[in-house]
Every structure is written in C-alpha cells, then in structure tokens.
Specification:
By secondary structure, the protein is α/β, with parallel strands linked by helices. The chain is 53% helix and 10% strand. The protein has a domain of 207 residues: NAD(P)-binding Rossmann-like Domain (Rossmann fold), CATH 3.40.50.720. The longest helix is centred in the middle third of the chain and has 29 residues.
Length: 298
C-alpha cells in the first residue's frame, strides 16, 4: 500500500489491518512510518512498513525486495494510493512541478505494477488496485495537471486489466470524489505558490476549494471500497466513490461540452470572453494579417 501515512491511505491500512490483512505500508518518511506503526499499535492493530518513494525507481525496487522478504515471495495485492495535487493555471505550472506530479501520480504506480506482476504471475494470481480520482474523468480548470495524471492512470489501469487477466491478476480502478484529507489543503497552498492571486480563476478557485474542504466527509467509503476490491471474487473493473463523483462523472459524460464549460467558468470565476484592450490602444494584427511595416512595403 503506497501513500499510507496520511489521508485516505491511513484510513485504508487501518481498516485492512483491522480485518486481519497482513498490511505492509509504504512511507516516504521513516519518522512518519514509525508514527503510523505506533498509532496502529495504540488501536490494537499490527502492520509493517517499508520506506518507499514512488517517484524514485531505486526506492521502489528496494521496497519491493524488502516486502518480498517479509512475505516470502512478494505481496498478493498492491494498492497504489500515493498521489499529490498540483493546482494552478496550466500557464503557471512549470515543467519541474509537472514532471514531479507525473512521477508520483502516474509513473510511480505504473512502475510498481510492473515490478509486482512477475511475483503475482508465479503464484498464479493477485490483485492490483489503482486509486485515481473523479477528476480524471471530469477535467477541472486550475488543476489541469492533476486531472491529466489521473486520467492517464485510469487509461493505464484499463489496459493493464486486459493485459494481466491471463496471469490471474485482477485489476481495479477506484475513482473517489472529494473527501476530508490534506489534499485540498495542499492544493490551496499550490494556488498561493504558483500564480498571482489577482489572475483570473485564483480567487474563486481558492474559495471553492476552501468551501469543499470544510464540508466533505471522511474517507471511510474509499477504504470500504478498496477492501471490496480485495475480497470480492469478481471485483468490478471500476468503482466511483462519493456523492459528488457519482453526480459529476455521468453529468460530464452526458452534457455537451459547451454546457460543462459554462459550469466550470462559473465555478472557477474564469472569464468566458477576452478582456477588452484599454481605450486608445491600437489592436495588434490578426493572425495571417501583415504587420504595418509589411503593408508599407506592399
């Protein structure tokens, strides 16, 4: 289980440990791993941890080698939960931030899937659960990279489900809506960091995220869904979790894009038309129109 020390991941590992699963929790920070073990022990639960940075290939290999020693061959199931937000207008998010998001939210899960498959195939089966997001199917302005990474993870999961079927490995996709985790708080920090708060979209998006953060329920439904993925004899390929996701995903699929664009403009405060140039400012040449000097030469 990746991303286990906080938010959804913490709730999942405690639920699985309480149900009797042998849980190995991946944690990037050793201190947080020890704190997770202590908190579990305080609840009468037993779980083990490995140090794991999903954005680092060597760390992934070492963590799975350690897990293989713990389990005598490797895990029967992998739950890819680690993820980070990256809020801000696409024009304001630099390449370094985008690459880091893709390493954590997409390449890391893909790498771990690739590394666990040989062991699962050797044992004749296993389970992989990839936790995406409802925003993977409802692309949200001011969060383009997060939606893009989750959309790609969904596509990867659907492909892997077909590719791994003959190995006896069942692959599930979980798409949560908004739940009470540190994720929205981090997204608010992103908005303060990457762009000018006075730019279009930042003020309304900040208010929207803060309002959602105050009202969303705890992530227990996601933990129950992950447990269902692991225990069902024939788990569903995809689970959408949360009232907001169950509403927005089909709505976004059924409505014309012009309508959903209007809804997104209204929610984010992004203007639908260009801002008029100040009075007295001559307009620039239109696309394909020669400049003034070119006109003179003509």
């Amino acid at each position: 289980m990746t991303g286990a020390t906080g938010g959804i991941g913490r709730v999942i590992v405690f639920r699985l440990a309480g149900a009797g699963w042998d849980v190995i929790a991946g944690a990037r920070d050793r201190e947080k791993a020890r704190a997770l073990e202590a908190d579990a022990a305080g609840l009468g639960l037993a779980l083990r941890t490995v140090q794991l940075d999903v954005a680092c290939e060597q760390s992934c290999r070492e963590a799975l080698e350690e897990a293989a020693e713990m389990t005598g061959g490797g895990p029967w199931a992998l739950v890819n939960n680690a993820g980070i937000p990256q809020a801000g207008a696409l024009a304001d998010v630099d390449d370094a931030r985008a690459r880091h998001l893709l390493e954590v939210n997409l390449l890391g899960p893909a790498r771990l899937c690739r590394l666990v498959l040989p062991g699962m195939a050797a044992r004749g089966g296993g389970r992989i659960v990839n936790i995406s997001s409802g925003l993977g199917r409802v692309p949200w302005p001011m969060g383009a990279w997060y939606s893009a990474g989750k959309h790609a993870l969904s596509a990867l999961t659907h492909c892997l489900r077909v590719e791994a079927a003959h190995l006896g490995v069942r692959v599930c996709l979980v798409e949560p809506g908004a739940f009470a985790t540190p994720m929205l708080g981090r997204a608010l920090t992103d908005l303060d960091t990457v762009g000018d708060p006075g730019n279009p979209g930042y003020g309304a998006t900040t208010r929207l995220f803060a309002s959602v953060d105050r009202r969303v329920p705890g992530p227990e439904p996601v933990a129950r869904t992950v447990e269902a993925c692991l225990t069902a004899r024939r788990p569903r390929p995809r689970y959408v979790v949360g009232r907001d996701a169950r509403l927005l995903v089909p709505l976004h699929t059924l409505l014309p894009l012009a309508w959903t664009d209007r809804l997104k403009h209204a929610a984010t405060g992004l203007p639908r038309t260009s801002t008029p140039a100040p009075t007295g400012t001559p307009p620039g040449p239109r696309l394909g129109e020669p400049s003034g000097r070119a006109k003179e030469r003509a």
